[in-house]
Design goal:
10 helices, 5-stranded parallel beta sheet, 11% strand, alpha/beta
């Protein structure tokens, strides 16, 4: 492996991305492959300044990114509590995440694992904003690293919603949603993942794989191990 590779685990909230990422990390470490997980960035002033300047550079180089700020919220979510602040933060965090991933991958010969990254944020914005698949594909072509592996953690919207509720995480945007809107968000997100991944399936970048998580943890571990066997880094 001469270049760095980016692996992003994608799927609905509660699908098991974080658990699968931990399993994947452990499996790759046993093979003595250089690997690191996306952790909170404890940035000093230099790094923070670098990130802000690189974000501005991206926006100048790719003016089509500005459309994110011009696209209105999808009609079905306009009355959802906190939606405007959530979408505003998500727009900025999408661009920042691309810069952070690029910064963290400066070291060669390593695999960088992210369980809530660029692809996932694009799908969330595709669900919440009035943007189309063509624009989502454009965003991914700009923001994803050259060597990208996407792993969808496959589970039903019902199972994901059940797990998400069981986690009891304080997320005002999610917790204040009406149950009907929550279900709509999860079903809509699942459809967006399915459609977008299908559109990208014939593209050379990114590579796309699927790991099933409709069973228990033991099955998830086995499914991740089977995936690792397919890697040729």
């Amino acid at each position: 492996m001469r270049t760095s590779h980016y692996i992003e685990l994608v799927g609905l909230p509660g699908s098991g991305k974080t658990e699968a990422a931990k399993i994947l990390l452990a499996e790759l470490q046993t093979k003595r492959i250089g690997v690191q997980m996306r952790n909170p960035l404890n940035a000093n002033l230099y790094v923070k300044t670098y990130i802000v300047l690189k974000m501005l550079w991206l926006l100048c180089k790719h003016p089509s990114l500005i459309r994110l700020w011009l696209s209105p919220i999808a009609d079905e979510y306009t009355k959802t509590p906190h939606i405007r602040s959530v979408v505003r933060n998500m727009r900025y965090r999408l661009i920042a995440e691309s810069v952070i991933v690029s910064y963290k991958m400066r070291k060669k010969d390593t695999i960088f694992i992210n369980d809530e990254g660029i692809f996932g944020r694009v799908v969330a914005l595709l669900t919440l904003l009035q943007i189309n698949y063509e624009y989502a594909e454009r965003l991914l072509s700009i923001l994803l690293p050259q060597e990208t592996q996407i792993i969808q953690i496959v589970t039903s919207p019902e199972n994901a919603l059940k797990r998400e509720r069981a986690r009891h995480i304080e997320l005002p945007f999610f917790n204040d949603m009406e149950d009907s809107v929550k279900s709509m968000f999860f079903v809509g997100g699942a459809q967006q993942y399915q459609q977008l991944l299908a559109r990208l399936s014939d593209c050379p970048v990114p590579n796309i794989s699927y790991v099933n998580n409709n069973g228990g943890r033991r099955i998830l571990v086995e499914n991740v191990r089977q995936f690792v066997k397919t890697l040729n880094f």
